[in-house]
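Note to self: the last two entries modelled the partners one at a time, which told us nothing about the interface. This time every component goes in together.
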Amino acid sequence: MSQFVCKDEIRLKFSQAMSDMYQTEVPLFGDLLKLVNDVNGKVLEEDPELKQKLQETGELERLEQTRHGAIRIGKKEELHTMRRIFAVMGMYPVAYYDLAPAGIPVHSTAFRPIDPESLIKCPFRVFCSLLRLELIEDADLRKQAEEILAKRNIFSPRAIELVEKFEKDGGLEQADADEFVKEVLETFRWQSEAAVSKETYDALHNQHRLIADIVAFKVPHINHLTPRALDIDAVQRGMFERGIPAKDIIEGPPRRKCLILLRQTSFKALNEDVQFVYGEERVPGSHTARFGEIEKRGVALTPKGRKLYDELLAKVLDETANVDMSKDAESYYAVLKKYFDEIPDCYDQLHEQGLAYFRYKLADDATLDKEVTENNASELVASGVLKLEPITYEDFLPVSAAGIFRSNLGGAEKREYDEASNRALFEQNLGESVLDPFEIYSKIQKDSIDALNKKA
Ligand code: OOG
Ligand code: NI
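The predicted structure of the combined assembly is written out below.
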């Protein structure tokens, strides 16, 4: 009898192996983790109620688990195989992100667990960006990049064998699962030896630093990992205090009591030694790509809530276009707060106005004497029969992602690609459609109603 290892278990092993590897590769990331642990420890000490809640949900023991990482890949075959690799770990493509309007020549998805139970066991997800070669303006260079990418194979033959075995048998046994994690890790390992000459690197770099980061290396090194911070503002301050080169601002919505969506910040990418390769010759040089990030997640917004978020953020960015963030982050935060005051900072209100997703739970000591529907839920909340539990946002934000990309690509990169977004091509390359995050959240909300009606 075969005994397949649970996919959540494989993902957990993989995320831990990745975190160990990255701390060795990028010691500053280890320093960031230490800072995050210090801040989280302090928050828990000062807020026993929060500690209790995290304990009840099992979150406390998982607090130190890595929340996400990111990779950038170069060709459609890589995206296709990446999807198969992540499926072994119970990670599926959710949402399409087009970064081109923000001047980043990639489009992306996030491979992530979907079921709430899987997310709880191990929330690790990977933001995966595919280079849009058609956005390289110089035709000769585009052709050269294509040729370089055509020659590379970023997966080990054994990793592919194990994926095939998984697909055929429907799972992996322990020894295979362990070997799978070990083999796949190699695809994300830093290579200090580039795949190209200094001259080619410089030409790619002149088009866009991101293009050099993707094309000039043998494998798509993990470019950052992200733990969860209970107080992201405190970690941002702590980075400045401890001399960790933090990016200027925290991306996303402002600090608030009832956090919406996602806030994130990072330390700026390090300048690292690499060897460029020209025949037998090795030419020393450097490359800047890898960093460390932190995140704090809030409640998921409905399409209506998200539309409002996008509109308000656009106004903020417009009004702060001339603010020098490195000197005057406070002005930016003030404008951010001013506009976002329009979104109620109260779960009941967010629910009432249909702006966010919630699980409905029966209030303590309450009894249910009628069927719950989407329509009467608000009433039952108001009368105290039901209570609301916010559904956490598990995806990414394109404007924030662009901000993270940009601050790690050097501030000088300011251009726009007006090429239309190409989701259909992305999905064709991927080999399936990306899942719609709104459908996932709305199903969790509906399932909570069904569960109440079943109990009654
Ligand atoms: C990915 C940036 C996106 C996030 O947290 O929004 C991201 C990258 O730099 O490759 O990870
Ligand atoms: Ni990130």
